[in-house]
């Protein structure tokens, strides 16, 4: 039991330092050195009594950007295990503590909760409330409209949808891992006019100066003498400095867009459809074809977009052309069926000039949106490919490719077709193969920059 008390004491010391000086890593070395010193003396485990770090048995521990001050240990003795989440008999005057509150998503692959800074109306998110010495206690949560984008007053409570139809106050108990976890869908609470309200909310966000809804969290824990380590910065314009209000770790509000756009990536051309004898390799020779490099770039873009919690599809993911009507129809039809908001078609030019990089923007009603997105992407691509000035061309009236039907028949908000240099250039071929991940990230960054300004 002696080493159990010493580990608890170290945890309490960590917590005291956090409260006095603010949570950070600058005193972590001191604590590690102290723990190491203790472990070399009377804390040395023997063969019958082992201490080890273990994850929670009840929930997957959330992924955060800081080290939680909670210490989780397992004491093994005679094949019996006990998990301790919080230091017992805490003697610091602040008592129990709400350490943090933030938005997260649950990874489908790892099942872990990952901290996020933004989402969109209609999406399901989680609010994580991290605590010390509050296991089993009830946590009340309010989600507030920081800048009265939807509501009538700043910091007014909003009623989102949850499984309990809670209205504007949500309640959960703290689990054995020290977290209270709230599952929230970012749309109006369930009633007969839910869809109408959702449309109204989206319109209000679209009219905001930056097209964003900014949310803050308010947390209230059951019990007395609770310490709140809220992250609202000093100098809030409405004087709101209470410790139980939370913005994110950068003291910025959680951002909600009016919607999460659906993005469709279209690798140009495609071959090997034996059913309808439609063969469309694109430009190139017997060894190197446009269709293959378009697919390489498109897969890299999708891989990067998958990391952004945004829905993204590809018109093809293999070397195939799937439409018996011809090489074009299925591309825009697929994008429209998926209700795509953004369409990016990837191609290469013929010839050996690797400096021929151009973008064709969608015309008709989406000329401004398409041009804005093209400019954002080209700016990010400049370090990787030769991007001449004034090379964004409007499709309307351009007849060489039958007015680029893939763009003019797309019904979303922005569409472009990009030509990544000449397929006949060995330098260009090597650049794409070597830097495909960097190119994919640059295009993704450009798309996200456009999305953040327009969704």
From TrEMBL:
It is an enzyme of class 3 (hydrolase). Residues 45-70 are annotated as: Disordered. InterPro entries: MurNAc-LAA_cat, N-acetylmuramoyl_amidase_3. It catalyses: Hydrolyzes the link between N-acetylmuramoyl residues and L-amino acid residues in certain cell-wall glycopeptides. Residues 332-448 form the MurNAc-LAA domain. Keywords: Coiled coil, Hydrolase. It holds the Pfam family Amidase_3. Gene3D superfamilies: Zn-dependent exopeptidases (3.40.630.40). Residues 191-218 form a coiled coil. Its EC number is 3.5.1.28. This is N-acetylmuramoyl-L-alanine amidase. It comes from Chryseobacterium luquanense. The lineage of its organism: Bacteria, Pseudomonadati, Bacteroidota, Flavobacteriia, Flavobacteriales.
């Amino acid at each position: 039991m002696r080493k159990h008390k010493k580990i608890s004491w170290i945890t309490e010391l960590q917590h005291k330092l956090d409260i006095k000086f603010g949570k950070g890593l600058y005193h972590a070395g001191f604590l590690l050195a102290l723990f190491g010193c203790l472990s070399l003396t009377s804390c040395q485990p023997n063969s019958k009594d082992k201490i080890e770090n273990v994850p929670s048995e009840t929930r997957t521990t959330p992924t955060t950007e800081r080290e939680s001050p909670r210490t989780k240990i397992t004491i093994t003795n005679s094949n019996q295990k006990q998990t301790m989440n919080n230091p017992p008999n805490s003697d610091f005057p602040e008592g129990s503590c709400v350490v943090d509150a933030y938005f997260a998503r649950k990874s489908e692959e790892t099942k872990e909760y990952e901290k996020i800074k933004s989402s969109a109306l209609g999406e399901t998110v989680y609010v994580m409330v991290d605590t010390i010495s509050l296991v089993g206690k009830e946590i009340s949560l309010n989600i507030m409209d920081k800048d009265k984008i939807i509501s009538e007053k700043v910091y007014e409570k909003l009623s989102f949808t949850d499984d309990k139809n809670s209205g504007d106050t949500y309640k959960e108990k703290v689990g054995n891992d020290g977290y209270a976890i709230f599952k929230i869908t970012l749309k109006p609470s369930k009633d007969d006019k839910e869809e109408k309200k959702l449309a109204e909310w989206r319109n209000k966000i679209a009219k905001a100066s930056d097209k964003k809804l900014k949310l803050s969290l308010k947390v209230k824990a059951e019990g007395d003498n609770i310490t709140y380590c809220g992250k609202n910065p000093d100098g809030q314009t409405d004087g709101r400095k209470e410790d139980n209000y939370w913005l994110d770790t950068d003291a910025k509000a959680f951002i909600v867009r009016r919607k999460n756009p659906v993005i469709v990536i279209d690798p140009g051309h495609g071959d090997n459809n034996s059913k309808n004898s439609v063969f469309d390799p694109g430009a190139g020779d017997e060894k190197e074809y446009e269709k293959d490099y378009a697919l390489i770039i498109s897969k890299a873009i999708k891989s990067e977009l998958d990391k952004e919690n945004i829905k993204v599809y590809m018109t093809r993911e293999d070397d195939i052309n799937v439409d018996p009507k011809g090489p074009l129809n299925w591309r825009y039809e697929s994008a429209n069926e998926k209700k795509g908001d953004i369409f990016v078609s990837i191609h290469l030019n013929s010839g050996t000039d690797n400096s021929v990089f151009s973008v064709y923007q969608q015309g008709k009603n989406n000329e401004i949106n398409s041009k804005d997105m093209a400019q954002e992407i080209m700016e990010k691509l400049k370090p990787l490919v030769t991007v001449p000035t004034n090379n964004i061309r409007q499709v309307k009236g351009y007849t060489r490719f039958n007015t680029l039907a893939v763009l003019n028949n797309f019904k979303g908000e922005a569409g472009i077709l990009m030509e990544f240099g000449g397929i006949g250039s060995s330098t260009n071929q090597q650049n794409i193969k070597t830097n495909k991940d960097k190119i994919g990230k640059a295009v993704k960054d450009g798309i996200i920059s456009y999305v953040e300004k327009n969704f």
